[in-house]
Structures are given as structure tokens and as C-alpha cells.
Amino acid sequence: MHIAALHQPSQVQLNQQGNLKHFLTIEGLSKESLTKILDTAQSFLDENNNLINRPLLEGLTVMNLFFENSTRTRTTFEAAAKRLSANVLNIDIARSSTSKGETLRDTLWNLEAMAADIFVVRHSSSGAAHFIAKDVCPNVAIINAGDGRHAHPTQAMLDMLTIRRETKKPFEQLSVAIIGDIKHSRVARSNVAALQTLGCKDIRVIAPNTLLPVGFNEYGEHVRLFNQMNGGVTDCDVIIALRIQNERIDSPALASQSEFYKMYGLNKERLALAKPDCIVMHPGPMNRGVEIDSSVADGDQSVILKQVTNGIAVRMAVLALAMQGQLQEQGLIEAISL
Ligand code: CP
Fold first, then answer.
1. How many distinct structural domains can be found in the chain?
2. Do residues 170 and 110 both lie within one domain?
3. Is the pLDDT of residue 47 over 90?
4. How far apart are CA 73 and CA 66, in angstroms?
5. Which run of H or of E encompasses 312?
6. Where would one find the signal peptide in this protein (predicted)?
7. Ligand 1 mean position to 186 CA, how many Å?
8. Which residue segment(s) compose the domain that 217 sits in?
9. d(Cα 307, Cα 292) in Å, to the nearest integer?
10. Per-residue pLDDT tens for 72-112?
11. What is the pTM of this model?
């Protein structure tokens, strides 16, 4: 599927009552839907930020299907599913029969026949999760764990939860800067969409032209472009640094990593231009000394590891809500009570 088609609001992820039954993309979801995910995630955290287990998915089976590498997303989905008392199977794609020529469709139908209720899917092709939800396994709740350059909706929601909890300000009052490789980043795309939907009025994208998508204005309202760090980060409440996605770059986009650090690396001097209580975020994996200096990554304003913990709460919320939406569609609404 062409990436432009994926920008259209998708109804595939909603059931007849307008609730999530898959979670594929932020686009097309209302402010109320995103707020419901945040509030549900919040309900899995106590006042000391400890995670609260709830056996909402007891007897149900979550399968993690990661066709691309992952540290945070795969592990936090597994942790989230276990905290909801689901059975969790991590499918070892490298050892699966895909290497013998089995199609994605056949692999998924076989896994569905093993009584899968939820597939968590990461794939290098933009649109893979959408394709599975629409055309292959519509009765399994499909959660997009990152598809190509297109979307990483649970990362966006854990970022929004982190912003809400750490700034304690309404999204309407925040200035948020996203720095780095916007062109190849599914995180940037999903974060911009989530910020816009939640009401943020000042979204700044800071990047060299070589790391911006062609037709940058596709990002829509309240998004401003900066080619220089200094103007871009001034008076910000939130800075999100992104890594260079070398695995998705097919021609040189940068003179060198050291040149990028010189122009766009987030160091203490540049952070000092933002508001004094500005928080620093990064989805990981980080390349220290390229997009972010260690003094900032490990400094007092960094909430990077809190993002990871919040990721478990958000993934618990998304798993429970999507499963609830699937069961609602199948007339079994009483099965999960949130
Ligand atoms: N942020 C993120 O998606 O990290 P992983 O690739 O480690 O899952």
C-alpha cells in the first residue's frame, strides 16, 4: 500500500459503536478516543507510578509477531499482556516457515488457528498491520507495533501519556519540538498526529531539508519547520529527539554523523534555550553523541526511562480496549469490563 493512502483516516480500526477493535494508526481517531486510551493507561498506574495488574485478558492469547528488531516495544507488549493475565506467545519469525517461502497470509491464518485473540505486529512494510486487519485476520485484534515509515501509534500514545504526566499542562498550552530524521520516522508522523488531535497549537519540526519528507506540508495545521536548532527549541516545554534511521535511508542524507551532531545534536547549551522545566524525550534506541549528548540523555530534565514504564501502561490499555472492541463486535461485550 502506498504511504499516502495510509494518511487517510481509517475506519478499519473502529467497530460499529465507534470503539477500537484494532489499533493501527492515530489518524482518524478523535480526541475522545485518544483521551480514553490515556485515561485507561493512567488507571494502570498508582500514585507512586507503580504499575497495577488487572486480569482483564485472562484466558485470551496475545501473539507478538516482530518481523523487525525491537527492544522496548516487544518487551513492553509482553510485560503488558502478562500484567493483564493473557497467555503470551513470542513468535520467532527468523525460525518460522516464512524462510521456506510461506506467505504472510498463510503464516497468520495458521497462527489464528492456534486460537490467537490479539496479534501485535511490527513489520518493515508500511501498511502491513492495516492489510492484516482488513484482509487477512479481521476477527483478531491487530495492534500495530510499527510499520515501515508509516506509524507507531502505541509509541505516540506513551509519549502523550508521558507529556501529560510530566508537564501537568493541557496540550493546548504546550510548545513541542521534534528534532532529527523526520523523513524516515514513523514516530514523528504518529506524534505529530497525536499532538494535533489532542489540541497542541505549537508543534515544531527541526531537521535539515534532507531529513524532511517531500511535501512537508502534509503534516497539516500547527506544524512549523525549523532548519536551525536555536530558533526551534527556544521556549519549548517538550523536546523529542529522534535517531537517524540508517536502515531506511537508501542514499546519503547526511554529510556525516559528526556534522549532524554539530548542527542538530541536543546538548546542554541548546536545552538551556528551552523553558527551564522543559522535558527531554527520546523513543529509543538512542545514538549518544549523534542526536543527543549523554549529559542531556541522563540529565535531570530527561524522562526517557519514564517513557518506557509508561509504555507498559499504554500497551495494557490498548490491548484491553482493542480486545473489548473486538468482543463488542462479536456480541460478547460483558467479557471485559474496564
Ligand atoms: N521505540 C521503539 O520502538 O523502540 P524498539 O525499536 O526498541 O521497540
1. 2
2. no
3. no
4. 10
5. helix 304-329
6. none
7. 11
8. 153-307
9. 16
10. 999 999 999 999 999 999 998 888 888 888 999 999 999 99
11. 0.94
